[in-house]
Amino acid sequence: INGDTVAIAIIDFERFDARPTHEVLEDEEEMPLSREEAVPAAETELASKALREKIGQVKRMEMRALGKVVGIIRRNARQYAGSLRIDITPEEGVSQGRCLFISEDPRIPPIQVKIQRPDVVSKKKIVVALDSWRAEEKYPRGHFVKAIGLIGELRTEQDVILFEHNVETRSFTKAVLDCLPVENDKWQIPLEERKRRVDLQDRPIASVDPPGCKDIDDALHCMVLPNGNYEVGVHIADVTYFVRPGTPIDLEAAHRSTTVYLVGRRTDMLPGLLTENLCSLRCNVERLAFSAVWEMTPDAEVVNVRYFKSIINSRASLTYEAAQKMIDDPNDDSILTLSLRGLMSLAKKIKEKRNANGALTLASSEVKITFDEETHNPTDVSMYRTFDTNSMVEEFMLLANVFVAQKTAAHFPSNAILRRHPSPKIDQLKLLENLLREHGYTFRYNTSRELGESLNAAVRNNDPFFNRLVRMMTTRCMNEANYFCSADFDIPQYAHYGLACAFYTHFTSPIRRYADVLVHRLLAASIDVESLPPIMANRARLTKLCDNMNMRHRMARFASRASSDFNIYLFFKDGKVTAEGYLTAITENGLIILLSKYGIEGLLEFSEAEKKENARRVREAPPNDGVVKHAVINFEGEWREVKVFDVMEVNVQCELRHFHKTITLRLLGLPRR
User: Fold this and answer.
1) pLDDT tens, 178-189?
2) What is the distance of C-alpha 388 from the center of its chain?
3) Which of 307, 354, 390, 592 could be stapled to 386 by a disulfide with Cβ–Cβ 3.0 to 4.6 Å?
4) Please, are residues 556 and 262 in contact by the beta-carbon 8 Å criterion?
């Protein structure tokens, strides 16, 4: 079973042709990890030195090993979500009285289960545990664990997504809830705590977030100093005041590691009293914060920085759009608006300097889904609209994270919790380079600065989406960023490629990320306001925490994408939508087209005649440097050549399988360039 730890006997080696013919720039694998797959590499059993050398030799010689499983060392003891098949034929080899359970994970074979009232249970999504797999039987055996809900219902599908992505959904225990203030939402800042903190309630502080945000982690302010410089503050919710080290609430947060966001649903890392109330930096209430305050010149040069625990009182909880309107309103010169304008001016200069140092501005295919207020069905899918204020907030969050990373790494060189981003996948960047060269673009990527300059130059007249498309395709070439303990890597390996900085961490979202909680404790100890918890001196423990945080964040991201895919499927399933799309890749089976309005890709499948003709062209063409750039299609009886980055109008249809949408397209008009 997928996820089992097995012993393999090598039978033979064979050479294989490693030269690609139809390469596609793809997102990383999105199937849920099993528990065994989620175990950090440091804890898995190491192969012998001789075997590792043999594996390296095989890779260098472009060969692959042939082997067979000779033993199962450790079973992957997890449960699976899915549904029943009750229309079993005798030829399928299922034991009498059993049904077949079909897992949502396509890597898992059907499982034989005994079910009472299968006619009723077959209408539900259920959970099954695997028991055994007899040598003489075609399918393994398992048993029913629980029902999740009726197939097709939104809540059921969300629960299945959370279950399959290993997201903790159980209610917080009494021990966890007992860690909360006994005053509940009537809690007030104690007098002794006030004496320990800097009171910043006179500052023009505001938060700027997406619409409907309730777990407000951060707030900002800016004001002019008597010497003409600026005081700039980033104020972060002081979660560690309520979440003390080693308590049940701390252990639970460490286990969950992150808040998980599905479309229309949130699964919190911390109880709601903290998430939406006592820690959330809502306006017009006193809140505890951990502040980083800089003095900056008008050119955004940092003169000095201070870190301290504070008390703030945000004057407004703004959306990005509302903050943008205040900044743009020539008749608004309120103190809060002047603060926002100062932040915007400095943010643009900070970003300009970051980009000059090699920081990348990439793009994602994340979409916004609009719902009918009564039926709750999706009524529109579109790419997120952003404002300059999005970038403004981002710049100051990045600045705080960089400065805190430098501070904590300097003070705790062996105990710091940092975030590294390795260099990108060069083979995939090479493919993108070959595609762009066909259109006359120079695409260099020896350094992040070169890559950033290449992205800025990839523009097409009267086609603003083209540059965003290239940035989206470049994003797919990136490796994953990960948390780590500073003792586990050499300093040159700390670097964050995408941000072009030597030290980086996460400090600005402790309500929804446990990594930030750990960083707050490190920063507090580095400025001598609190002692470092003993557990944070245990490097092995920190490494395990980082491994869990990385796994949880990855699964949360995949769960969020699966939820988005489900709602996209609901929007497109009737096949009534037409859209304009860009040809991004050519495969053996058809054309991959990205729909510019919706930010999603689909397949325009070749007919059998088109498959044969394109296969012939590939065979007869000169070596293709790893990627196919041209194809032919038969449109209304005529053969037409198409080229990567051509634009075409298509009809959109959608199916859903294993949480992931499959978009199929039908060509409606001739491609254009």
Assistant:
1) 999 999 999 999
2) 22
3) 390
4) no
